[in-house]
Specification:
Elements lengths: L9 H20 L4 H13 L3 H17 L3 H14 L4 H17 L14 E4 L3 H4 L8 E4 L7 H11 L6 H10 L5 H16 L10 H9 L3 H12 L13 H4 L4 H7 L1 E7 L2 E6 L5 H10 L3 E6 L2 H12 L4
Parallel strand pairs: 4-5
Antiparallel strand pairs: 1-2, 3-4
Length: 316
């Protein structure tokens, strides 16, 4: 049955169909990308494409088995049997997975990987454990928002003066000879200077963008070189109809200040675009704030600038 569920508005359905089209391309190029398969499976189900959803779920389960992720595979096979009871191939596959888990002693806790509920942060206690975000109160951060002003201030204070990943990105570009050393060095100095003096409601600069301008480097070629060597996922964000409410699930210190932009939510997975995939601290902060699984994508800096400009009404 391929009818759309009644709870889906026409606008939501259009957005989900756009997501499906995009992730069909991604999974065709990389059929073992489990995160993308998970998103595609849920998207199909949201718009009533049950046959496609079941087919993708089976593909996802089989990939989990190939990768030795037997607990995740078992959950997928069990979910398939709930939707289509008695399927002999799925029953047989589930039995094989359970046997593997039993031999490894993991069967008893295998079903513990399901997701749900919010994430409680004892942010005061986090200081002792070396966690990134600290404050004097315990906050519950859910998928409905990024917290309050106190939390945003705490994030800003913890991130201030700490690595934004541009050093790591610069080393990567030089190490892999993607750009001349002197171009990377001068671009890094310029971006560090600019980002140190950011004013409120101002978009941070991107090292990739600066490198392209200074070195007359083609953006597509540079991104292609990064993707080939680092195996990051890419998203053509410029063609995506981004929901501004999703962007604002993270505070401005991460979106404007670090070019970390949530752009879609499918089931329990949030998709986030970044201009610098080497910003480990920024990504850690985002992950701690969100009660979602996160799938990271690199996007063109100009596409990220445009989204942020539209969401925060900033003139580029």
């Amino acid at each position: 049955m391929n009818s759309s569920p009644p709870t889906i508005t026409s606008e939501e359905q259009e957005q989900i169909l756009q997501t499906i089209e995009m992730f069909e391309v991604i999974t065709q190029a990389n059929p073992k990308d489990t995160q993308s398969l998970e998103i595609l499976k849920e998207a199909y189900q949201r718009v009533g494409k049950d046959a496609d959803s079941l087919k993708t779920a089976r593909q996802l389960a089989d990939v989990y088995v190939e990768q030795g992720q037997y607990s995740a595979a078992m959950l997928e096979y069990e979910a398939l049997l709930q939707r289509q009871p008695g399927q002999p191939e799925v029953v047989a596959a589930l039995a094989e997975v359970e046997e593997k888990l039993a031999k490894s002693g993991q069967l008893r806790g295998a079903a513990a990987g399901s997701h749900g509920g919010g994430i409680d942060f004892d942010l005061q206690g986090a200081a002792d454990s070396g966690s990134l975000i600290t404050t004097e109160q315990t906050l519950r951060v859910s998928g409905n928002g990024a917290g309050n002003e106190a939390l945003a201030s705490a994030i800003a204070a913890k991130l201030a003066g700490r690595s934004d990943g541009n050093d790591a990105l610069a080393r990567f570009l030089i190490q892999h000879k993607l750009v001349a050393d002197e171009v990377v060095t001068s671009a890094l100095e310029r971006i560090e200077s600019k980002n140190r003096s950011l004013k409120p409601n101002t978009i941070a600069g991107s090292l990739i963008d600066e490198v392209c301008r200074r070195g007359s480097v083609e953006l597509d070629a540079l991104l292609g070189g990064i993707l080939d060597r680092a195996k990051f996922a890419y998203i053509p964000l410029e063609f995506y109809d981004v929901d501004r409410s999703v962007v604002k699930l993270l505070p401005e210190q991460l979106t404007l200040g670090r070019l970390i932009v949530p752009f879609d939510v499918i089931s329990r997975t949030m998709m986030i675009a970044v201009a610098n995939p080497f910003d480990a601290l920024g990504k850690e902060a985002a992950q701690q704030l969100l009660d979602y699984n996160v799938q990271w994508h690199i996007a063109q800096p100009q596409a990220i600038y445009q989204v942020l400009a539209e969401v925060y009404r900033i003139t580029l």
